[in-house]
Amino acid sequence: MRAGLEGASDMEEVRSLIDILDLSVEEIDQLIATADAIMENPEDYQNACQNKILATLFFEPSTRTRLSFESAMLGLGGRVLGFSDSSSSSARKGESVADTIAVVSAYADIIAMRHPKEGAPLIAANHTRVPIINGGDGGHWHPTQTLTDLLTIRHEKGRLEGLTIGLCGDLKFGRTVHSLIEAMSRYDGVRFVLISPQELALPALEKARYIDGKGIPCRECRSLEEAIGELDILYMTRIQRERFASEEEYQRLKDSYILTPEKMELARGDMIVMHPLPRVNEIAPQVDEDPRACYFRQAYYGRYIRMALILKLLQESGKGKAQPDKGRPHFPENALPGGVCKNPHCITTTEQGLPQRFTPAGEGEGEYRCLYCEAEYTP
Ligand code: NCD
Q1: Which residue, among 343, 375, 31, 21, has the nearest Cα to 214 in the 3D structure?
Q2: Residue 65 falls in the annotated catalytic set
Q3: Is 114 a catalytic residue?
Q4: Residues framing ligand 1 (Cβ under 6 A)
């Protein structure tokens, strides 16, 4: 089989990936199947994106995610351009995300972006002529890491249902955690164990929406030793230094959890250890030799699921498939005139001319969330 992009030249309709929930469970299954097919026969896909250009716009430093996107596009026979740090882009001169995207979408067929401000890719998706892939926005979302995680789980555990997943570390600022919880909350029989210091607990709104609100069993605990024995998957994360308001607090919390061979002895023989990487100190290097450690295999899978994603978005853009209705591409009316988002990481703090927008949050009256960064807002 040869996978090509015939007929995908009319770019009136654009399919982007901003939040993992932009993809249905069936679409994720199809992406996993395509990634498997590419892994098996990469030569069948080596010209699938010939003459297509991927722009990687990394306003926040990254190596592995950017390289994995670039390697994915090169593996499909496409070409890549872009920047790897905002100081080498016009963002430094004060250009808005909206303007950068309007310009770059004239030069590329698909854009992968990472931005320190939460909600930036949503703005991009509203100003683009080509698909936008969110490669991470602040502490908010990281849907392509989640696709990587799902492919890894499917390979290592054989299924996505009926799993107990322990998420350990920085559950407050860890965007990979937020997107993974959203994604896993759609599979039957999932159970979460949230292991973090109180200060880095999962945001309440997120827990209410994706765990408690869906009746998913969940236990919060402070100790890794206490929880490790009941897990099918241990998802370790880095404490996100760059998102802390104070260096002192980071120093106090940075070594909250360190996975060691001794702690691995308390785990089941078939538990797997995942980590989006980079690790700092949270997994001792001696754990790498344990066959249950699969974080380097996880990085390998990332390239193939991104290949599958690039193919899908290019194939579907211009073929009349619109965005799932999440208020995009046209934003809904502001539900709270006069409100100003208080999240210092929100894109509204830097993007010129961007009006504040709130949507009602949950059932409670008088509760809102920012449309862009999703932070809770009580007037
Ligand atoms: C993660 C990220 O950028 O959020 N890394 C990645 O994408 N591979 C995790 C992290 O930086 O801690």
Answers
A1: 21
A2: yes
A3: yes
A4: 64-65, 136, 142, 145, 175-176, 238, 276-277
